[in-house]
Amino acid sequence: MKRRVKEFVDIADHVSLDDLIEKLAEVRDGLPQGSEAELRLRGDEVFGKRITISYLREQTDEEAEIEQRYADAAKEAKQRELERLQSELGVVCYAAPGNRGKLRIVA
C-alpha cells in the first residue's frame, strides 16, 4: 500500500513580482490533484529568506520498495534483540496458549 509523502519546492532570488507570480503559477499548474499545497516564507535575516511550497504526492514504487526493505530489516533486528533478551532472561511470559514462554513483536 502506497502512502503520500511531503515534497518541497524552494523559490529564491526572484527579481521582480511578475517573475515570482509566473513561477508560482508554473508550480501550481504542475502540482498533482489533491496535493494540499502550502506556501511559507522560511529562513532568517542571516541566511536569507526563501519561499517554500510543500505539497503531498503519492509515493513512487521505488520509494515504497526502499521503505519496505528498511521496515523489514528493522523488524528482523527487533526480533533478534527480543530473542537475545528472552534467552538472557530465561523467559517467563504468560501469553496466549501456543505462545507460552515466547514474546512476539506485533508492531
> What is the H/E order?
EHEEH
Number of domains: 2
* Count of DSSP H/I helices: 2
Instruction: Count all strands and give the number.
Output: 3
**Range of strand content:** 15-25%
Q: Uncertain segments of ≥5 residues (pLDDT<50)?
A: none
Radius of gyration: 24 Å
Sheet/helix structural class: alpha+beta
Cα distance, first to last residue?
Answer: 17 Å
Mean pLDDT: 80
Outline type: elongated
The largest sheet is: 3 strands, antiparallel
Strand order of the largest sheet: 1-3-2
Helix content: 40-55%
Structure keywords:
107 residues; alpha+beta; 2 domains; three-stranded antiparallel sheet; 40% helix; 24% strand
What's this entry about, in short?
The chain is α+β, with helices and mostly antiparallel strands and 107 residues long.
What does this protein look like?
- The protein is of the alpha+beta class.
- The protein has two domains: 4-58; 61-107, no CATH class.
- It has two helices and three strands.
- It has helices spanning 17-30, 61-89, and strands at 4-11, 38-44, 48-58.
- The protein is elongated and about 70 Å long.
List the helices and strands and how they pair.
Elements: E1 4-11, H1 17-30, E2 38-44, E3 48-58, H2 61-89
